[in-house]
Design a protein that fits this description.
The structure holds 2 protein chains of 2 kinds.
Chain A (H helix, E strand, L loop, with lengths): L3 E4 L2 E4 L5 E7 L5 E7 L5 E9 L2 E4 L6 E3 L9 E3 L8 E8 L10 E2 L3 E5 L1
Parallel strand pairs in A: 2-11
Antiparallel strand pairs in A: 1-3, 3-8, 4-5, 4-9, 5-6, 7-8, 9-10, 9-11
Chain B lengths: L3 E4 L2 E5 L4 E7 L6 E7 L6 E7 L4 E4 L2 E6 L4 E6 L8 E8 L7 E3 L3 E6 L1
Parallel strand pairs in B: 2-11
Antiparallel strand pairs in B: 1-3, 3-8, 4-5, 4-9, 6-7, 7-8, 9-10, 9-11
The chains are: A mainly beta, B mainly beta.
Chain lengths: 115, 113
């Protein structure tokens, strides 16, 4: 099993450029999440999805967009990249959520630098 | 909004000592409290979790305690080993029916031999 796969692992963007971080999981999990990790700041939730066609904002959604057309894929779109979006981005999935929130399985992360 | 405070931010212990990391949460409706371990260059991995109907849970050298009244929960690692060196995150579910987790800022644990 591949688990949660993120691409690319590293990317450098210029201010104002756009890009999409790809995330796919092969565990048939309904719940998927995007977090960003900044040094000393822990993990901040950007967006999450409880199933195909359903997405919702997390703690820090500004500057990002998501879509969930299939169970497997949950891409994160950055429009008009800004230096404040320099971070490590983690995609995660879980089998259950809500009152029965269970283990999150994380990808290995995508390191994004905006210059 | 919901918040999870984690202390200390760094912790250095000698091999064989115990390590304790503490967290407090703000949302009294939170009912799920996991702990994740992150090794360098990797994504976080679940090491232990506890639900609100339980006060303590153990798994070999690690244990978690929960005090719902005080909104505190703690991670205890006994007989620490160098391979325990990593960043540890606590988290709390967003509300009783919350779908996602709020994470603390992390604790960097260093175990020296």
């Amino acid at each position: 099993n591949a688990g949660v796969t993120q691409t690319p692992k590293f990317r450098i963007l210029k201010i104002g450029q756009s890009m999409t971080l790809q995330c796919t999981q092969d565990m048939n999990h309904n719940y998927m999440y995007w977090y960003r990790q900044d040094p000393g700041m822990g993990l901040k939730l950007i967006y999450y999805s409880v199933g195909a066609g359903i997405t919702d904002k997390g703690e820090v959604p500004n500057g990002y967009n998501v879509s969930r057309s299939t169970t497997e894929d949950f891409p994160l779109r950055l429009e008009l990249a800004a230096p404040s979006q320099t971070s490590v981005y983690f995609c995660a999935s879980s089998y259950s959520g809500g009152a029965n929130t269970g283990e999150l399985f994380f990808g290995e992360g995508s390191r994004l630098t905006v210059l | 909004g919901e918040n999870v405070e984690q202390h200390p931010s760094t912790l250095s212990v000698q091999e064989g000592d115990s390590a304790v990391i503490k967290c407090t949460y703000s949302d009294s409706a939170s009912n799920y409290f996991p702990w994740y371990k992150q090794e360098l260059g990797k994504g976080p991995q679940l090491i232990i979790d506890i639900r609100s109907n339980v006060g303590e849970k153990k798994d070999q050298r690690i244990a978690v305690t929960l005090n719902k009244t005080a909104k505190h929960f703690s991670l205890h690692i006994t007989e620490t080993q160098p391979e325990d060196s990593a960043v540890y995150f606590c988290a709390a579910s967003i509300g009783g029916g919350g779908t996602a987790l709020i994470f603390g800022k992390g604790t960097t644990l260093s175990v020296s031999s």
